[in-house]
Amino acid sequence: MITSEEIKRRLWDGANELRGSMDASRYKDYMLGLMFYKFLSDKTLEAFKVTSGLGQLTESEMVEEYSKARAEYGEELDKMIQGVLGYYVRPEYLYQTWLIDINSGNFEVQNVTESLNNFERTIAVSSDSNEFKGLFSSSTLDLTDTALGSNLNERNKSIKALILLFADLNMVALQKGDVLGDAYEYLIGQFAMESGKKAGEFYTPQQVSEVMAQIVAKTSNINSIYDPTVGSGSLLLTVKRHLNKDVQKDLSYYGQEKNTATYNLARMNLLLHGVRPEKMTIKNGDTLSHDWPEDPERPNEGVQFDAVVMNPPYSAKNWNKAALKVSDPRFEIAGVLPPDSKGDFAFLLHGLFHLGQNGTMAIVLPHGVLFRGSSEGQIRERLIDKNYIDAIIGLPNNLFTNTGIPVVVIILKKNRKIDEPVLIIDASRSFIKVGKQNVLQEKDIAKIVDTYVERRVEAGYSHLATRNDILENQYNLNIPRYIEAINEEIPHDVDAHLLGGIPQKNIDDLKILQSIVPDVLGRFLSKIREGYVELVKPINEISDDILSDSRIVAISEDMKSKAKTYIDKYWDILRIVDNNSNLNQLMDEMLIEIKSILSEFNYIDIYDGYQIVAEIWKGSLIKDTEIISLSDFYTAGRTREPNMLTKGTGDKKREEQDGWVGSIIPNDLIAKRLYSNELEEIETKRTRIQEIEAELLELVEAAKVDDSDEANALGDTLNEAGEAFDNKLVKAELKKVSKGTVEFDLLKNVEHLFADKSELSKAVKADEKALRDAVQERILVLADEEIDSLMYEKWFDSTVDAMISLVEKPLKIELNTLQVLYTRYSDTLSAVDEEISSFESAFEALMSELVVGS
Question: Strands, E, within 676-726: which ranges?
């Protein structure tokens, strides 16, 4: 029962361990290439098994049967498997054959080279399998590369270790739940982050892909999709994920990639995600130099697509190596060629040329395209006049591994209504920091997409720019011209600083408090002069009174009730997921519904609630529902897995089992809820150990005081650092002193403390082991009601409270503002002057008392 998360972790850990000093951008070709070959081999064996009607056999038995059948039927068997899959792998070249050779000690890296070459040869003679040709070319997988090892023996060792990494993974079974594709995509992303700048050639961060894919999927009727700079194919696959299953079945994928290794990676990625060969057309070529795909019957129109998505190289220099003219059909619409020094608009115009009349295009570009002049300014002007720009979305900087610059997503359509405004969104401040990168959270993505779909206007975040707005700005689309960031700093009031009091206009700006509890707020304010008030109670008391007001309590109770109903509904659904459940769809339903529930409440940020549910999925539900779907809720609750730890270093590094852990129920939670008495006893002993350590520390400090009883009795028993007692020295000193003396009593006390601590430490260790063993065994016999209770706590324990806190959050923000205002104006200028005058008088009095000696 291996989950996608475990596969991802294991494969990435293996990659880090095996690649040594090889650059991640290069090592990915070997690892992902061999992983894909395992997939081809597994699919071949599966096709043979199904077509031959064989029953349950072990993998080695299946290889043996396949070898016998191949010897008997020869090319007839090859054609049969190829008819099913579009390709085949002969028995002697299977991945499983490599494993047999490894186990028998007969493996050589030449086995792999011959297998890959044979696959290339068998595919080359077939006109039906273009998507598999060249996948394992020597330019991608060069097994003679010295980076794999300085000699043949070292290379043998490296490749053998990599082959073993995938040995026990059934790629066919893993593909059914998209587990395999997710793991592959995860590895691509991890390699991208490790590769730094080079990664920009083939990888779009998942969060940026999500923004583009969700917008495209929600606004187009999609039968075909095209990415002219396809990279690893992640954008195409992200759009696929947001389409329903029926649409996915008929979806045609097109893409072009200049880098050969990355082109191969894209084809592998799509095939692993279950895209049929006949549904994908991926080309290795330069998108700008030669237009593709072309329609021979309509050379001036090009092939049109329902959706176009792309993340091209930014500001590509010397893009026009083919000496293209403005007469090229792709650029005719602009009336001018983009500058040779910056290819941004060249890519945009290429994508737009291939966009269908009712389609949607999303492209990521640097901000410069919004405001740069010369030919780029002319192109922008033409696009606006043609009414093709639908939206501009400003994203935070430092989202990409290959550049720190902020980028924009531009959405284009050809069927916009006349005079429909351009939606501009500034999401540049919506992110969290994860390591060195800025990251969009799920709530940030949801807000961007909702704002786009609803064409929503929000101060400081989004704006609908009319044609007149754009003309007034002379076709400059720079986001700050249309959206002014909200300055949350409250301006200072000179009169309030001089005379005291809080300006009434600042009180009036506390919109939420004024709306919900204006009378309560008013009770705590006293007018001191026209336009200024003071607080009649400390702010903490005001906060308590407001938050406990019946109206606030009623809102909180309403939230509690709705949150509880929501949780109970999905609690019942989540427990019965099975192999036919669409877990991504279930997650989307939960997220959409929580937004709907929270929208019934005024002043609450629904996206904060959205994030609460998204975090539950990310933290627990993605993994847990996958495990539950493979068996059932209660079986999964009573299932445990080996707890594997990595021990040793270098050649002695190994994995060893250290007990068991619950598949879905954490051991710590079982201990906390079902063994609370045992935990309390252990904690009591730990507390006593801490008390003993404190007593010993006090005696150590006392022993450092000269001529004290402790110094005389214990000074010689301190260790060399003088920071602790040495137990052996204490015992030695005890033999030298007489009973009944102060020295003896002090030494004996230290000895007892050491003994008590040792005994307690052993007891804690024994108790912890006994508890750990008890918990590991208890997993197997948990009652259904215990599983219910534990899993409900794991998934939803703090969810209701978190939702209720959304009610209080905006109130607390305004109460904090009230505190800031109070603090700001509490010291008036006159009060400060009086204080200074008082200090001066005191200083003068002190000076007059000083007597100067003769």
Answer: none
pLDDT above 80 (res 688) = yes
Residue percentage of the chain with pLDDT more than 90: 59
- Cβ atoms of 179 and 272 within 8 Å: the answer is no
Residue type, position 69, single letter: A
User: What's the CA gap between 308 and 412, in Å, rounded?
Assistant: 9
CATH number of domain containing 430: 3.40.50.150
CB 470 within 8 A of CB 384: yes
Tokens of 96: 């499983």
Distance from first CA to last CA of the chain, Å, rounded? 96
Residue 564 counted as domain residue: no
In a domain, 600, yes or no: no
> Is the preceding omega at residue 366 within 30 degrees of 0, hence cis?
no
3-state DSSP: the chain helix, strand, coil percent, rounded to 5? 60, 10, 30
d(CA 45, CA 61): 11
pLDDT at 6 over 80: no
Residues 194 and 292 in one domain: no
Give Cα separations from 12 to 7, 222, 231, 485 (angstroms): 8, 34, 21, 41
Asked if 195 and 211 sit in the same domain, the reply is no
Computed over its alpha carbons, how large is the radius of gyration of the chain? 35
| Helix (H), strand (E) at residue 3 | none
CA distance 588 to 628: 18
For helices 606-616 and 583-598, angle between their N-to-C axes, nearest 10 degrees: 150
Give me the half-sphere count of Cα atoms (radius 13 Å) on the Cβ side of residue 399. Answer: 27
Looking at the 3D structure of the chain, how many domains does it have? 4
Q: Which of 664, 674, 666, 661 is nearest to 636 (CA)?
A: 664
Give the domain CATH number at 104.
1.20.1260.30
Residue 657: inside a domain, yes or no? no
Domain co-membership, 225 together with 300: yes
- Domain extent for 222: 204-486
Distance CA 505, CA 531 (A): 7
Q: Which amino acid is at 149?
A: G
What is the per-residue pLDDT across 720-740, written as a single tens digit (0 to 9) for each? Answer: 778 899 999 999 989 988 898
Residue 469 and residue 173: Cα distance in Å, rounded?
Answer: 56
Half-sphere exposure of 246 (CA within 13 A, CB side): 1
Residue 593: is it exposed, middle or buried by C-beta count within 10 angstroms (0-12/13-18/19+)? middle
What is 89-150 written as a DSSP string? --GGGSHHHHHHHHHHT---HHHHHHHHHHHHHHHHT-TT-GGGTTTT-TTT--TT-GGG-S
